[in-house]
């Protein structure tokens, strides 16, 4: 009788530490970025495979906010370091470091010979990436085309790097899926995978011209579906965490009339008389800076382009975009629907179809997609709040279980995505294995119930002893209760 009553006590320790039978612990994390994938282009018409996958897991319905400047290389570095751009120092795809008097231009936008080579110098990359943290903790990673992922990691001989070479196409991307899959089969516990679309198509065709955007999205969707099918066939689907995101969104440029071609208004030659970053002008003297500010302000007014010409020091403090030696004094901030370029490649307004990014990070159109699924994540959960892409870094550290360096991300802004949000009283060995608050309440009941039962028994015994009819029974009961519980 008493053994039965004590049963809850016997099962208590194992209930607390055993994994829930519904899911296993994640064996690996795959971080995916499709360049320029705006949050609201994830829908069942445009990308059915990705949309139904996202519905199984966690979807940040309103997307994720990028960092200023909202361009490719800096944001990919922010995602994997958790740092603002001015903290990791890659403040643009292109910028001049006035202190070092060197030009950074990882995509050869300036066409200056030797500039890519210079941009590969380890000097530029001083921040710890998630795969470096993973390696320090004994993990193994593969980096498949992640922008600057290969160069930003020094001479890391443990991580498999696959440098980005081309925009590719469906058959090329399916080959890349096999690289990701092979990495998982080799036992990598972290894979970062990147495709440079739909960004490339959006820049060259815009959202609406001739079905180009829809076609590239369909191909990306089939690639994603193919990846999921490979995981399922190999029985990796339920043990792999996937985070799907992008570096920034995109905004269609209304017409060529609202594009400011800055070199037409600034005296002198880029790279000789003044330097540029993506949207700032670095003048060599204060007087020259004032001239640039005035001529651009005049140009914007005359051409009636909805763009703001401002001093870089006046950007909102929450942008954390204030590098002392790498940003120019004057900044042009185009409104959504417009663009500002140092050199304009377009001539004919009739054939002009283009979308762009680089606008203010808090603009809706700049937000990227963010969805996740896997054993670490909640199921069928839609989240309204808008995290920042730097928050993905502490989230990855958490689910990989590796120590990460100090960073600018905030885990609290994304932890709703976890299957069980971290609890303050960490009495449980692995909080991820406790799947919900209901489980926690149940466990508290499991502790309280035996205590209540024991109290009743003790009360019963004491009353019996006091009444004194059967002292032997009381002794037996006490002995039985102190027997080893096996
Ligand atoms: C998906 O987005 C497209 C383009 O914005 C829109 O035309 C379509 O109605 C949307 N479909 C759904 C199911 O939301
Ligand atoms: C950069 O562009 C210039 C001009 O198009 C070209 O000559 C040079 O080879 C390019 N550099 C690299 C590394 O591709
Ligand atoms: C990587 O480099 C370290 C230190 O130089 C060395 O001990 C280790 O064996 C190397 N690992 C591989 C896989 O080459
Ligand atoms: C896809 O790209 C590869 C090169 O990466 C090329 O050989 C192949 O012909 C392309 N396929 C299509 C359908 O364009
Ligand atoms: C999803 O991806 C698969 C590739 O595995 C493709 O065959 C299928 O057509 C896609 N589904 C939809 C609805 O596009
Ligand atoms: C994943 O787990 C779910 C629930 O346990 C199960 O229904 C499903 O068949 C599993 N899928 C695969 C591909 O193993
Ligand atoms: C961002 O993080 C870095 C590294 O921890 C820190 O030095 C810097 O002060 C942080 N920036 C802000 C604005 O908090």
From TrEMBL:
Tell me which Gene3D superfamilies the record gives. Alkaline Phosphatase, subunit A
Q: GO molecular function, one example?
A: hydrolase activity
The residues forming the signal peptide are 1-17
- Indicate yes or no for the key word Lipid metabolism: no
Record carries keyword Membrane: yes
Transmembrane annotation, as ranges: 441-462
- SUPFAM superfamilies found in the cross-reference section: Alkaline phosphatase-like (SSF53649)
Protein's name in the database = AP3A hydrolase
């Amino acid at each position: 009788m008493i053994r039965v009553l004590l049963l809850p006590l016997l099962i208590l320790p194992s209930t607390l530490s055993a994994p829930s039978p519904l899911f296993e612990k994640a064996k690996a994390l795959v971080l995916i970025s499709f360049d320029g994938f705006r949050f609201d282009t994830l829908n069942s018409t445009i990308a059915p495979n990705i949309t139904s996958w996202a519905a199984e897991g966690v979807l940040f319905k309103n997307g994720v906010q990028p960092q200023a400047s909202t361009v490719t290389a800096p944001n990919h570095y922010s995602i994997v370091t958790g740092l603002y751009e001015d903290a990791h120092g890659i403040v643009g795809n292109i910028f001049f470091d006035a202190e070092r008097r060197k030009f950074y231009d990882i995509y050869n936008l300036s066409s200056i010979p030797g500039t890519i080579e210079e941009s590969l110098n380890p000097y530029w990359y001083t921040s710890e990436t998630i795969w470096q943290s993973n390696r320090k903790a004994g993990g193994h990673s593969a980096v498949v085309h992640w922008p600057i992922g290969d160069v930003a990691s020094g001479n890391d001989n443990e991580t498999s790097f696959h440098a980005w070479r081309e925009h590719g196409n469906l058959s090329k991307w399916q080959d890349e899926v096999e690289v990701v899959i092979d990495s998982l089969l080799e036992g990598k516990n972290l894979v970062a995978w990147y495709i440079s679309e739909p960004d490339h198509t959006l820049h060259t065709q815009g959202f609406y011209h001739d079905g180009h955007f829809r076609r590239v999205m369909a191909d990306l969707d089939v690639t994603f579906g193919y990846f999921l099918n490979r995981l399922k066939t190999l029985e990796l689907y339920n043990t792999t965490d996937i985070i799907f995101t992008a570096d920034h969104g995109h905004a269609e440029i209304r017409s060529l009339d609202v594009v400011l071609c800055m070199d037409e208004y600034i005296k002198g030659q880029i790279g000789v008389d003044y330097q540029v970053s993506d949207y700032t002008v670095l003048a060599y003297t204060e007087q020259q800076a004032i001239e640039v500010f005035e001529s651009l302000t005049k140009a914007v007014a005359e051409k009636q382009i909805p763009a703001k010409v401002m001093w870089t020091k006046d950007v909102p403090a929450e942008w954390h975009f204030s590098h002392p030696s790498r940003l120019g004094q004057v900044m042009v901030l185009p409104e959504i629907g417009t663009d500002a370029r140092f050199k304009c490649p377009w001539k004919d307004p009739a054939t002009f179809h283009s979308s762009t990014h680089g606008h203010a990070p808090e603009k809706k159109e700049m937000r990227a997609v963010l969805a996740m699924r896997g054993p670490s994540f909640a199921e069928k959960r839609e989240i309204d709040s808008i995290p920042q892409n730097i928050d993905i870094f502490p989230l990855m550290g958490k689910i990989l279980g590796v120590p990460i360096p100090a960073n600018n991300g905030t885990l609290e802004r994304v932890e709703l995505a976890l299957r069980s949000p971290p609890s303050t009283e960490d009495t449980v060995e692995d909080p991820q294995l406790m799947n919900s608050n209901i489980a926690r309440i149940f466990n508290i009941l499991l502790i309280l119930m035996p205590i209540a039962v024991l109290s009743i028994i003790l009360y019963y015994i004491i009353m019996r002893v006091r009444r004194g009819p059967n002292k032997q029974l009381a002794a037996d009961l006490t002995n039985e209760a102190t027997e080893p519980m096996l």
